[in-house]
Amino acid sequence: MAAVVTLSLLSMSVGCGPATPTTPASSVTPSSTAPSAAAMSAAAGAPGSVGATPRSASADWADVLSRARGQTVRMAMWDGDAGINAYMRDEIAPALDREFGVGLTIVGLAGSQIANKLLVDLEAGRSTGDIDVCWINGENFHQLRRIDALAGPFTQRLPHQQFIDWKNRFIGFDFQQPVAGYECPWGCVQFALIHHCERVPQPPRTLAELETWVTANPGRFTFDNSFTGMTFLKCLLMELAGGGAAFEGPFDDDRYQAAAAKLWTFLRRLRPHLWRGGRAYPAGVAQLHQLFANGEVDFTMSNNDGEVDSKVAQGVLPAESRAYVLRSGTIRNAHYLGIPRNSPRQEAALVLINHLISPAAQCRKADPMVWGDGTVLAVDRLPKPWQDKFARLEQRRLAPPRAAMERHALMEPAPELMIRLIEDFRREIIEHVE
Q: Using the 8-state DSSP alphabet, how is residue 271 labeled?
C-alpha cells in the first residue's frame, strides 16, 4: 500500500501505513517564552568540579581518567524498559570497560526511591554511599537540590559537554529550574499519545474530542498511575489553564487550584467510561502498553515521542501503533544524570557521564531501533563525520518528525506542580466516592 501521511499544523499524526512523515512548511511559535541568554548561561553552570583543584582542563581530565581506571561505577536508574536495559548492558558497559577500564553496575532505583535513599544517607551521616550516578529529572532534581544531596557543579569538567545544546530551553532548564551544573542532560523527549490506527483511524485531538470518543467507546481508554500518566494529566491541566504560559515561573497555588478543579471535574465525567470503569489504573506505562498490545484498550502513551518505533520493532506494541500530539501541545522535557555528594567513585561517575553524552553514545541511543531517545547535543556543532552519522540515522516511521513535534511542545511547569498533582489525583479521583 502506498505511504499515507496525515500531518496537520496543530495536531500531527501518522496514517495507518508504512509512512515516512514530512515536516509541515509552516510552524507554530512555542507558547513558552525562551529564557534569556544570561539564564541559559546559568543553566549550564559555572566552571566547577566534584573535588577538583584549579588546573587546565586537559590535565584535570587526564587525572580523572587515571583515578577512574579499575573502579566500578554504580548507576541508579529506572530499569523497567528492556530496550534501555539492553542498551546499557550490551553497549555502554562493554565500551566503558574497553575504553576506560571502568566497570558498570546498574542499580534498579528510580525517581523518589533515589531521593529517599540519599535522604536516609544524609540523615544517618553516611558520608560514603553506594550510588555514584543517578538518572533523574524534575521533582527528583528539585528534592535532591533542596537537601543538598548532589555533588557539583560538575558539567564543565566533562570534555563532551562542549557539544550540549545548552541554548535549547528544553535542555538547559529542568522543570523551570536551571540545572546549574548539578546534573548533566542525557536525553530530550516529548509526550505522545499512541493509538491503534486501524481501530482508531481518526484519534481525538482536543479535550472535547477525547471526551466524546471515550464516552462513545467505554472501557477502551485509560492512563497509568505513574509518571507517564501524570504527565498526560499535566498536559490536560495546561490546556484547561489556558496554555503552557499559564504555569511559567515559580509554582502558583491559586493558579494551580483553579485549573485543577476543572481537571477533576473533567476526569469525573470521564471516569465511568474508562477501562474498568475508572476503578483501577495500570501501575505503570509498561502495564498500559501490555493492555494496548492485548487489544484491551485502543490507546497507550509515552514520554518518549520516539518510543513507538522501538517498541514496535521489539514486538512490544503492534505494527498498527502510531504516535501523535494533542492540538494544544504536549510536554517536552529532558532527563539528566546527577552525582550524589557521597559517591565514593566520583571519577568513575564523571567518566560514565562523559561517555553517555559522547557523539557515539548519543547517536546510537537516538537510533529508533535501539532506544529512539532524542539527543541533547547540538548536532550542527559536531565534527562533520558525526553530523553525517546523525543524518544517516534511520528515520522513525510511526511518529511525526521530532523537529516538527517540538513546534507544539510545552515546557514543564515548576516541580511542585507534579508533586501536588500526584497527591491530589489520589485524593480527588482514586479515593473519591461519588
A: G
Q: Are 399 and 24 in contact (CB under 8 A)?
A: no
Could you tell me whether strands 133-136 and 12-14 are parallel, antiparallel, or unpaired per DSSP bridges? unpaired
Rounded distance between C-alpha atoms, residue 146 and residue 32, angstroms: 26
Residues 6+ apart with CB under 8 A from 242: none
Give Cα 73 distance to the centre of its chain.
23
Q: What is the pTM of this model?
A: 0.84
Q: Which residues contact 137 (CB under 8 A, 6 or more apart)?
A: 174, 175, 183, 333, 334, 335, 336
Strands (DSSP E) found in 344-403: none
pLDDT tens across the length of the chain (434 residues):
333 223 333 345 566 764 333 333 222 333 344 444 445 445 555 433 344 433 567 889 999 999 999 999 999 999 988 999 999 999 999 999 999 999 999 999 988 899 999 999 999 999 999 999 999 999 899 999 999 999 999 999 999 999 999 999 899 999 999 999 999 999 999 999 999 999 999 999 999 999 999 999 999 999 999 999 999 999 999 999 999 899 999 999 999 999 999 999 999 999 999 999 999 999 999 999 999 999 999 999 999 999 999 999 999 999 999 999 999 999 999 999 999 999 999 999 999 999 999 999 999 999 988 999 999 999 999 999 999 999 998 888 999 988 889 889 999 999 999 999 999 999 999 987 66
